[in-house]
Amino acid sequence: MTVKPPFETIVTEHGPTVLRVCRVILGVHDAEDAWSETFLAAMRAYPDLPATANVEAWLVTIAHRKAIDVVRAGKRNPLPVQQMPEESSGTGVVGSDDTGVWAAVAALPEKQRQSIAYHYVAGLPYAEIAQILGGTTDAARRAAADGVKNLRRTYPGATLKGVTQ
């Protein structure tokens, strides 16, 4: 019989990955809120999670849903009048400390951006990405490949975990 680790261990082990995914999907400003909401929801559901479940994929699925909630809520909120310049924190950076790559990722179409985040940042296989996004494994793989192709065209210096130019 497999025993589930304490929830605190889950947060420590998978928290950074979930935060990076939230940052890629939502940007720096909304990522921490989505991260918190993800782990609040996960904490409530954790007792019912089977001990054999893929915890990381489960958390990324929750983060995906929380990110959708943030995007929907953002559409109902007024737009800020003035935007402050953003400084790079160096955390969650895919290939370098250059924030230009994040602007290039943010400019990608939604499916491409999400596929890249879930595969290259969270390390999920395409089959699990397909389940999260709703579609086929081939579609998830194609979205990630198209996203990388678009990144290389718009931001030639972009690298994603072992994927080089």
From TrEMBL:
Residues 102-149 form the RNA polymerase sigma factor 70 region 4 type domain. InterPro entries: RNA_pol_sigma-70-like (IPR039425), RNA_pol_sigma-70_dom (IPR014284), RNA_pol_sigma70_r2 (IPR007627), RNA_pol_sigma70_r4_t2 (IPR013249), RNA_pol_sigma_r2 (IPR013325), RNA_pol_sigma_r3/r4-like (IPR013324), WH-like_DNA-bd_sf (IPR036388). It holds the Pfam family Sigma70_r2. Belongs to the sigma-70 factor family. ECF subfamily. NCBIfam families: sigma70-ECF. Residues 11-76 form the RNA polymerase sigma-70 region domain. Keywords: DNA-binding, Sigma factor, Transcription, Transcription regulation. This is RNA polymerase sigma factor. It comes from the Bacteria.
